[in-house]
Amino acid sequence: MDRLREQYQERINSVLLDGFEKELLDSAFVNLLKKTLRLNNFTYALALRELTRHVFHRLAPYDELRRCQLFEPNKASSTGITRKHRIKFAIQGGLSDFFVTKKLCIDEIDEVSRELIPTINRLSGFTHIEDSTFKI
Question: 47-59: per-residue pLDDT in tens?
Answer without folding.
Answer: 778 888 889 999 9
